[in-house]
Write a structure and sequence with these properties.
44 residues; 3 helices; rod-shaped
Length: 44
């Protein structure tokens, strides 16, 4: 029962910062791309 406690604390602290940085990067560009399309059709 003692091993599960340290494993969750270490895995939650390592993937947390890395997962948030990687998850925020791919989600930011896709949302910014759909917005520009509105200006593309207006320019044409």
């Amino acid at each position: 029962t003692p091993p599960p406690e340290p494993v969750v604390d270490k895995e939650f602290t390592v993937p947390n910062p890395n997962d948030t940085d990687k998850n925020t990067t791919p989600v930011d560009p896709p949302q910014s791309i759909p917005l520009p399309p509105f200006v593309f059709p207006k320019n044409i």
